[in-house]
Amino acid sequence: MAGYDDSNIFARILRGEIPVKKLYEDDYALAFPDINPQAPTHVLVIPKGAYVSMDDFTAKASPAEIAGLFKAVAAVARQLGVDASGYRILANHGRDAGQEVMHLHIHLFGGGSLGPLLAR
Ligand code: AMP
Q1: What digits encode the pLDDT tens for the residues 53-111?
Q2: pTM over cut 0.90
Q3: Where are the domains of the chain?
């Protein structure tokens, strides 16, 4: 897989070049609504570091960064109030998964019944 290209849209969001509604931010992660929601609640949680995908992230990020991202995902779910009703997280890596933005992002879906795991 190609290396990290810092012209991707999430890198631009992290640099403040593109405005988003910040739902959560800490030293490790930023969360904002997906622009094309696929569920009543659809939020993206991204690491602040420059990582293409889960593969890159788990190979290169520090344990603190990895823990920080997943703690942030759970914190966002609690903040949005979907921890009680349930939620789904998803990260696309590469071509077969249809990854569009080459900065790791965790999709957080909730706010209603989410149906089957995969639509094919
Ligand atoms: P993926 O297919 O996993 O790479 O998903 C990329 C996601 O980024 C899609 O769900 C898009 O709707 C979302 N997206 C793209 N641009 C923006 C943006 N400017 N703000 C919020 N979400 C975005």
Answers
A1: 999 999 999 999 999 999 999 999 999 999 999 999 999 999 999 999 999 999 999 99
A2: yes
A3: 9-110
Size of the chain in residues: 120
The closest alpha carbon to 28, from 57, 4, 1, 8, belongs to: 57
- Among the options 93, 103, 105, 107, which is catalytic? 105
Residues with CB under 6 Å of ligand 1 are 9, 18, 20, 34-36, 44, 92, 98-101
Closest ligand 1 atom to Cα of 91: 3
Please name the CATH architecture into which domain 9-110 falls.
Answer: 2-Layer Sandwich (3.30)
